[in-house]
Amino acid sequence: MERNGANEVQAELDSVEAELEVVELQIAELLEKQAELTSRKKRLLRKLEDACESAQTAGSSSAGSGSLSGPVMTKQELLRYENADFPWSKELEQNLKNTFQLSKFRPLQQKAVNLSMSGKDLFLVMPTGRGKSLCYQLPAVCSEGFTLVVTPLVSLMEDQLMYLKSIHVEAATLNASSTKEHAKMVLAGMTDTKAPFKLLYVTPEKIAKSKLLMSRLEKAYNAGRLSRIAVDEVHCCSQWGHDFRPDYKLLGILKRQFPKVPLLGLTATATSSVLKDCQKILCVPEPITLTASFNRTNLYYEVRFKNSNSEESIGDIASLIEERYQGQSGIVYVFSQKDADSVSEDLQKKGINAYPYHANMAPEDKSRVHRKWSTNKIQVVVATVAFGMGIDKSDVRFVIHHTISKSIENYYQESGRAGRDDQPADCIVYFGFNDIFRISTMVVMENVGQKKLLTMVEYCQNVDRCRRSVMAVHFDEVWDDEGCNEMCDVCRHGNDYITVDVTQHAKDVVQIVELASSLDEKLTPLKVTEAWMGKGPAKRRKMIQTTILSRLEVEAIITHLLLQGYLSEDFSFTPYTTYFYLKLGRKASLLKNQSHSVTMKMRKTGLDANVVKVSQVKTKEGKRSGDNTANSSVTKKVKKDL
Ligand SMILES: Nc1ncnc2c1ncn2[C@H]1C[C@H](O)[C@@H](COP(=O)(O)OP(=O)(O)OP(=O)(O)O)O1
Ligand SMILES: [Mg+2]
Ligand SMILES: [Zn+2]
Questions:
Q1: Which of 86, 193, 336, 504 is the most exposed place for a label (fewest CB within 10 A)?
Q2: Ligand 1 atom closest to Cα of residue 266
Q3: Closest ligand 1 atom to Cα of 102
Q4: Which residues does 296 contact at the CB level (< 8 Å), separation at least 6?
Q5: Model's pTM, two decimal places?
Q6: What span, in angstroms and rounded, lies between the C-alpha atoms of 377 and 401?
């Protein structure tokens, strides 16, 4: 009797599970449809905007002009600021050419400069290296009095002062290391009508702590000499931003005390909620926000598979540098200080003029490497992310990631150091299976560290969408694949992909993880890989279905299962290290359903193979061929002509 009852319940449970699965699939389909429609809608809206814009300003280009928002002005009113018919336009033009030695504005620069010259408060979101500084430096040069610039790092300040000195623009700084005499001179200069400097760089700490500075600022303000306030890296105000700095929270005092001075906040990355927060903190009533397109059209994005054999990838990087970038400047980003030392040593052995750079080096060694690289005496810096903020060499022709970054934002920022002179440059990332887990254990403590890392993994694993479109989604930007112009490996070669059914593979892998867990054992990704490839203990080999796929294919499939939620991560901490294991993901149980299938896109010639072995094949157009029995354990060759 009891047994019958249990059977009935089991039967009902099975049917509910089956139904649930169908619902889940429907939801997935609907979500996909929703994403597609939303993106179409955005595209159409953009087109409409562009059409209106070009009707208004004949000849103005829409590419990269970014989007605008702000409650104080309509879009049409804003358009006016793209023009060059303001009282100050001639002076701007002359200084752009003669002082800054630039031939023309980059997208959004002119609009930003005009808005700031008109006394508007402005937030400018522009990708790293696009030229935000010019948007306050040029107005500073063309205005009476001086511009106050708040910068988070003394090193950034020094770089800027060096640069301004080289173009004969007078600038001064006040920071913790300023001498008394220097400070005295600067403070006196603030109200001097002979204007000994056009820009005054200070740290937020100085504003927060120095009453003397505030009182001089007030005097300058009353005398009409404080022409503008620029807050660089403005996202540091917000706790939701990625580099929160407590002293930035106190900068609201500036706008409260000097309400008539226009404020310009600058950042490379800030979501709209972070900006809202900054607006509140800085007490800017209604700033106009200009957002430039994230798209750097001169950068070529490419992902290469990295073999677990690290020798091979170094050899690959070395020949790339020798053949493609001979005599050209570049950066190789690595995961750790140890890697920086070893990779640069390996590259040196191969005759490449490479030097390491990481946080643990003596400051003088760091600046020596930086200086020598800046003056082309070193070709390649092999660096950790410590080689970051403030690196502004314009002719970097390649940024190679020996290891993936910890998020797309980081990758965008790091790779974005290439091609700042607008000339073509390459951003290549080596995507290695083991690296995922090395980084994973590093970011485990961060709130959304895993999630962010997986977006980077997705970027790399992806074979069917323009690399830029993956980034665009991330930066919340409307994207049209034509904007890539074949400047990524997917657009250039990537239409050669196939959709393969990996259901049986998924079941095999899940069975391995399940078996381990039933034996109270935890498996690292390496152990799972080896078990599946039949390299585990003989006893286990008998209990599982092993595979004849190549290592790269095995790794690609396991990565896919992790991204799709059939597997998930499991960590274990010892006092010395953190271990990464694979456990069943929330979707693993779906595999028990006969009708459930898992598909995956693979590049036809991508992995080791024009021979991808699959049990079922579907072309891009959705035609099916090959063996329909997903359970078939016999693998088949995919014909090249698919
Ligand atoms: N209109 C222009 N034409 C050519 N080069 C320009 C132009 N404007 C700026 N640049 C150059 C000068 C610098 O070498 C480089 C980067 O400018 P910079 O203002 O330091 O970037 P940024 O402040 O937007 O980047 P980050 O976010 O890294 O601070 O671009
Ligand atoms: Mg900057
Ligand atoms: Zn592309």
A1: 193
A2: 23
A3: 3
A4: 127, 416, 419
A5: 0.72
A6: 22
